[in-house]
Design goal:
By secondary structure, the chain is mostly helical. The chain is 47% helix and 11% strand. The protein has 10 helices and 5 strands, in the order αααααβαβααβαββα. A 3-stranded parallel beta sheet has the order 3-4-5, sandwiched between helices. It has a two-stranded parallel sheet with strand order 1-2. β1, α6 and β2 form a beta-alpha-beta unit. It starts with a helix and ends with a helix. The relative contact order is 0.13.
Amino acid sequence: ARFESEIESGAFRPYREVLRGVMDAFARHFSISLTGEERDVLVNSLPGWPPFPDTRGALGQLAQHFKLAVISNVDVVLFAKTQKRLGVKFHWVITAQEVGSYKPSLQNFQRALDVIGEAPERVLHVAQSLYHDIAPAKKLGLSTVWVNRRKGKTGTGATPLAEARPDLEVANLAELAAMIEKSFR
């Protein structure tokens, strides 16, 4: 995660190049050499990464009540493959490729607001990363839910730390979906 954040904070590069750069940095860090195939392991494997067990069902529940959007650091092609695995239709998909920057850049969130056409106070941003998502969303006035999948676990996880304070913290998407379902009864 450190290597990825460092690469993404520089001049914009396509996400596939970011992932290759991560592998290169990893190889340098551990003084190993990679073949071309090994260098592409993240690019080639990403479309097959499974969602968390609660994600599909929770997104399906949320989609019954809300229009869903995604702000993603991956490119259009990679996200299309991920979306198929999620099994839910998003009304809006905003990728770093389209914006020309990576989260936590405010540009990505501002583009989302522009595309969605709603004022910040009418948008709820739900995400796992305080650094990439919650902190910039709060700066633009969005309400936020932090999906803290490390809740009750030791350590900080892989992403850089952030001082953001979410409006709500849940352990997983299923918890949020259940809260919302209850409010509609």
